């Protein structure tokens, strides 16, 4: 008979006993498998949600500005069709505001930061959800349920018309000198809601991945085009302008669009699509039948007035001979000793050389001016009566504004020459749509007669009168009749010239330092366009287009920020541990009950190694049976966990989006892992056979004393106990001076030391011989029974104690909002549109609100780069978190003794940085890295950054690649989910994002704060200003961790309960093992009731001691944290859990006594 045959026969013979062990294996396997299935289910659910929202959309082509939609259709060009099968041009704004009258008609319901989609009806062909969608036409809209709920709209039939507010596209950056700071919103009123779609399919589309639903509104693209083409886009050659294109590819084409540079090179775009103007500038003069060319060149300029530095690089690399021009608006040009001068004049910074041979009034070639010299034209020289050698003072507004305020600058330059300027006999004429008819000359004009040295700026260069300039500052009061005459005759012709280097020195900004390039006319238009578009495609950051690989990015993000399989394995560790200990205990009892069989096998000549092998084979069969059962139970366990995540523990995932998905890989891993760990547990328990005597086993005894500590080690037990207690005291004392997680961890370590000391004390007491005079005879008998195997009894107590300790101690990590989490701020606000005034100043409040806030109110505005929510509320893996730019006022505010945010670590090096870690944001690194501060939870869980000092590189969809250097961690604050940098760093990384969209608000009292917020929301409703209570926001963040703790407690209680039933199973085995002993006791006069009481006392003593030890150790760990830290312990809930567990354990113990009462113990004596 071979070993396997013997193992199989033994497995069948002892099937009832083996089934008990298999159930323990099933418990461990079920939890392993269930945890893996929960992780699978979360990832698959996120993936399904992602694919549902994308429909057939694969990529999104976005533009910095607007482009002609006709060029982006596959049916119109072969280049596009080579990459994508479907292309739907559209208009997309991620920061719209929608408002409507509420149902009572007594107020306005408003939703901010709404995704606004201007789409054609074929857009819905990309949807795969199967939802029927109404066609859109005229002033109609479709909204999703998320937006409808925010607006309080129950159904489309009862919906009042809505007003849609979108950002008005601007050519000039709002924070440039000429950029508009007000009237930046386009309002569309009286839009009828014709359908409300569920938050499924494309109706739930969002650029930033989150399981939460985004508020979306869909309107006809024609409606937005008509509105914008009458205002912000009136300068475009076509009215069919869009800023995005939704792109879909078949599987065959998915790899074709992988290289964006190749895609961009092939896109059928124009320079106008890239926001660049190419214009032929020609000035001829006909005299005596002969036509002479004064100047003839191509000018390249930008819609945004200043060319992007990357575009400048592309132009200079492609056309080395191109001549740069930097034209700037001077507020005043005057003689240095005069009070008055010429208001609002163009000054061109251009090098005077062979390519631009400017001549003076005497016809002589003007020499290039030095850095402190200026050339003034003939008209200006006559107007303010200056001559060569005179000093001129020029004044201008700084090219960058600060919080909407213009800063005036001045420079004094010496006149080096006076350039000749010819007066026309017929002035310029402005026709409809801003078309300007050139002036006519009867005398030859000069190179200085060139208004095209100034790029076109709608609202300025096309204005009929200088009084009609559309500028963010007042001009009319300073103008003179002569200034308007100059405008009529010369338009934007510069009145002065400086060297290009001087212009860069005076007017350079983060937006650039070149307004146009002059390219010789000998080059053909087509050549310029082809070569420049190719160069732009090759130059990083030059193109206005970016291709977002939506599907690829979204599927990567759907891997999740939290590995739920690992999380639930950790949360369920005591269920697994309980199962394994139960397997070990049951196997040991089985081994002891079959000791005579083992002894017989060895007595007839089988080697101990082969006997062990037979047992391993038999237990392998048991483990396989248990693992099969565990897989089935594990699926149910996973379903129960998912149900819990959708109900009790929904705070952990914010929205019940998870469904059960059964993955074969997880099933296989769970099956194999369950078998391996259980076989390993059994193998570990089987080692004791090597130390047993055959004679003892033949007598039915297995001596476990071999595994007990020897006499020498017993002497060290008091020393170990005292050492553990001393270490616990040291950790508690150290923890008083710590904070946050460090403090909680120290107190937790202190509790563990107390737990270890108490378990060692219990073991030493069980091992001690002697009687207890204070106990009854029955109690003495029960205690003596437990002392027969002190190690087993201590392990059993330890299982209950450790589980009890962790269930109680982990509660100390429950979080409640604190002042250190809010830094005393009462509200957190966000606006749809940027605000450019300082709301903490009275002037800023008056300018923006037409009102003032309570005097004690502070409003700190942050620059805002939209991105993904990287807080623990977002289940998706964040790769492009939002960025906040903190002002210097905010940073400096923490220099004073004021409430401050809690810190979780920093790289502060000086006393000043340690006193105010926010000042680390002002650091400068040679490699260009940007200092950043992140909340610790965001860093650890979402961004996988575990310590300050490292780098975090982000590739933004808008084209920027930024290296952030982590200089500090905040700890559990309202600033979770964002990267915090200084304002200076922000504008360096994102130069075209102006104004503030994120705000922290506080006052001396809550009443003033509430009043301030009411005013802000009322006056800034069009801008989508929306405030939230800071403590409630913090509580929302903390609810995630608290929910995980509740989950841990629930699963820990389940493990403890399993351990309790294990105790009952062990006690039943003990009763069966001790039949002869109990029979003898029955024969000498013990009644069944007394024997049952003894068994109940034994089990109750084990259970009770474990609970008491665990709870006392937890109290030692949590009480200091409760007194000196931020612990918030749910004492009542914990008390209920432990009382219920103890009660269930006693009920389970009664099963053992019931078996005892049904046994014929006298018969056992005969056996």
From TrEMBL:
The keyword Transmembrane applies. Residues 571-693, 1052-1160 form the ABC3 transporter permease C-terminal domain. The chain crosses the membrane at residues 20-39, 566-587, 619-645, 665-686, 716-738, 744-766, 794-813, 1051-1072, 1100-1123, 1129-1152. InterPro entries: ABC-4/HrtB_transporter (IPR051125), ABC3_permease_C (IPR003838). This is FtsX-like permease family protein. Pfam families: FtsX. It is found in: Cell membrane. It comes from Mariniblastus fucicola. It is a multi-pass membrane protein. One of its GO terms (cellular component) is plasma membrane. Keywords: Cell membrane, Membrane, Transmembrane, Transmembrane helix.
């Amino acid at each position: 008979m071979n070993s396997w045959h013997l193992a199989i026969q033994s497995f069948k013979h002892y099937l009832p006993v083996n089934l008990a062990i298999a159930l323990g294996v099933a418990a461990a396997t079920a939890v392993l498998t269930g945890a893996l299935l929960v992780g699978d289910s979360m990832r698959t659910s996120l993936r399904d949600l992602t694919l549902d929202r994308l429909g057939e959309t694969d990529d999104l082509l976005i533009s910095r500005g607007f482009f002609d939609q006709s060029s982006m259709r596959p049916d119109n060009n072969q280049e596009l069709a080579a990459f994508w099968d479907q292309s739907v041009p559209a208009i997309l704004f991620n920061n719209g505001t929608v408002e409507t009258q509420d149902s009572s008609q007594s107020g306005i319901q408003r939703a901010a930061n709404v995704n606004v989609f201007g789409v054609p009806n074929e857009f819905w062909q990309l949807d795969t959800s199967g939802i029927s969608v109404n066609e859109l036409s005229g002033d109609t809209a479709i909204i999703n349920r998320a937006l409808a709920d925010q607006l309080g709209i129950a159904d489309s039939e009862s919906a009042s018309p809505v007003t849609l507010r979108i950002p008005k596209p601007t050519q000039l950056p709002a924070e440039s000198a000429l950029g508009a700071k007000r009237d930046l919103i386009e309002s569309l009123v009286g839009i009828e809601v014709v359908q409300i779609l569920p938050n499924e399919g494309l109706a739930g589309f969002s650029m930033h991945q989150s399981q939460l639903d985004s508020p979306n509104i869909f309107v006809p693209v024609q409606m937005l085009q008509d509105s914008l083409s009458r205002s912000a886009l009136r300068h475009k050659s076509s009215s069919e302008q869009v800023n995005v294109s939704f792109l879909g590819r078949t599987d065959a084409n998915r790899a074709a669009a992988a290289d964006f540079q190749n895609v961009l090179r092939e896109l059928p775009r124009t320079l106008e699509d890239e926001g660049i103007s190419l214009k032929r500038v020609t000035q001829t003069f006909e005299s005596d039948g002969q036509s002479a060319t004064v100047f003839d060149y191509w000018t390249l300029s930008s819609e945004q007035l200043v060319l992007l530095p990357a575009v400048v690089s592309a132009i200079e690399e492609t056309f080395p001979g191109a001549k740069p021009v930097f034209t700037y608006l001077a507020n005043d040009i005057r003689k240095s000793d005069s009070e008055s001068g010429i208001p609002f004049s163009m000054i061109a910074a251009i090098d005077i050389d062979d390519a631009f041979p400017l001549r003076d009034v005497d016809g002589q070639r003007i020499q290039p001016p030095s850095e402190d010299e200026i050339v003034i034209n003939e008209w200006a020289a006559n107007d303010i009566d200056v001559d060569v050698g005179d000093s001129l003072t020029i004044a201008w507004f700084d090219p960058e504004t600060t919080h909407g305020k213009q800063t005036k600058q001045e420079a004094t330059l010496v006149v080096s020459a006076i350039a000749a300027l010819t007066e026309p006999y017929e002035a310029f004429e402005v026709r409809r749509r801003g078309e300007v008819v050139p002036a006519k000359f009867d005398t030859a004009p000069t190179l200085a007669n060139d208004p095209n040295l100034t790029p076109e700026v709608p609202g300025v260069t096309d204005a009929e009168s200088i009084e009609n300039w559309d500028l963010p500052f007042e001009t009319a009061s300073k103008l003179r009749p002569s200034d308007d005459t100059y405008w009529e005759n010369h338009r934007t012709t510069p009145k002065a010239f400086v060297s290009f280097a001087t212009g860069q020195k005076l007017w350079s900004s983060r937006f650039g330092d070149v307004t146009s390039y002059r390219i010789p006319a000998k080059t053909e238009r087509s050549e310029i366009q082809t070569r420049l578009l190719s160069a732009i495609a090759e130059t990083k950051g030059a193109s206005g287009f970016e291709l977002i690989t939506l599907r690829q990015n979204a599927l990567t993000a759907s891997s999740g920020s939290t590995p739920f399989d690992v999380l639930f394995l950790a949360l369920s560790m005591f269920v697994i541990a309980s199962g394994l200990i139960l397997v070990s205990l049951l196997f040991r009892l089985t081994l002891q009950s079959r000791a005579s069989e083992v002894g017989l096998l060895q007595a007839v000549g089988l080697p101990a190694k082969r006997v062990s092998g037979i047992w391993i084979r038999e237990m392998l069969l048991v483990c396989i049976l248990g693992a099969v059962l565990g897989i089935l139970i594990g699926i149910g366990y996973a379903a129960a966990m998912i149900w819990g995540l959708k109900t009790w523990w929904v705070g952990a995932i914010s929205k019940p989006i998870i469904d059960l998905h059964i993955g074969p890989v997880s099933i296989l891993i769970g099956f194999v892992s369950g078998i391996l760990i259980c076989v390993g547990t059994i193998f570990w328990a089987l080692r004791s056979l090597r130390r047993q005597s055959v004679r003892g086993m033949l007598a039915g005894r297995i001596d476990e004393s071999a595994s007990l500590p020897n006499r020498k080690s017993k002497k060290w037990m008091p020393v170990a106990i005292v050492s553990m207690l001393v270490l616990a005291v040291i950790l508690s004392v150290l923890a008083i001076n710590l904070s946050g997680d460090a403090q909680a961890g120290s107190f937790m370590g202190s509790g563990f030391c107390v737990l270890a000391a108490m378990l060692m004390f219990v073991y030493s007491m069980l091992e001690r011989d002697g009687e207890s005079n204070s106990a009854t005879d029955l109690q003495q008998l029960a205690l003596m029974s437990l002392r027969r195997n002190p190690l087993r009894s201590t392990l059993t107590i330890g299982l209950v104690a450790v589980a009890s300790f962790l269930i109680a101690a982990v509660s100390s990590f429950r979080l409640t909002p604190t002042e250190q989490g809010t830094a005393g701020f009462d509200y957190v606000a966000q606006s749809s549109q940027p605000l450019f005034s300082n709301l903490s100043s009275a002037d800023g409040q008056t300018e923006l609100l037409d009102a003032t806030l309570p005097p004690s109110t502070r409003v700190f505005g942050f620059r805002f780069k939209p991105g993904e929510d990287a807080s623990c509320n977002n289940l998706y893996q964040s790769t492009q978190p939002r960025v906040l730019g903190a002002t210097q006022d905010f940073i400096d505010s923490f220099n004073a003794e004021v409430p401050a945010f809690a810190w979780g670590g920093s790289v502060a090096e000086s006393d000043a940085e340690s006193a105010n870690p926010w000042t680390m944001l002002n650091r400068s690194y040679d490699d260009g890295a940007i200092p950043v501060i992140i909340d610790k939870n965001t860093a650890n869980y979402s961004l996988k950054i575990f310590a300050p000092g490292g780098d975090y590189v982000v590739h933004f969809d808008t084209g920027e690649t930024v290296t952030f250097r982590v200089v500090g961690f905040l700890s559990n604050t309202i600033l979770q989910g964002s990267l915090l940098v200084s304002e200076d760093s922000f504008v360096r990384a994102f130069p075209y994002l102006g104004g503030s969209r994120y705000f922290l608000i506080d006052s001396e009292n809550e009443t003033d704060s509430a009043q301030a917020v009411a005013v802000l929301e009322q006056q800034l409703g069009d801008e989508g200003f929306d405030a939230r209570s800071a403590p409630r926001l913090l509580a929302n963040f903390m609810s995630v961790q608290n929910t995980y703790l509740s989950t841990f407690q629930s699963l820990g209680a389940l493990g403890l309960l399993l351990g309790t039933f294990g105790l009952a199973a062990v006690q039943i085995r003990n009763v069966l093992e001790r039949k002869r002993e109990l029979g003898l006791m029955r024969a000498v006069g013990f009644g069944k009731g007394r024997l049952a009481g003894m068994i109940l006392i034994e089990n109750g003593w084990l259970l009770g001691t474990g609970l008491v030890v665990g709870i006392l150790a937890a109290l030692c760990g949590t009480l200091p944290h409760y007194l000196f830290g931020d612990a918030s312990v749910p004492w009542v809930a914990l008390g209920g859990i432990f009382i219920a567990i103890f009660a269930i354990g006693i009920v389970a113990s009664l099963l053992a006594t019931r078996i005892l009462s049904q046994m014929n113990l006298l018969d056992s004596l005969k056996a």
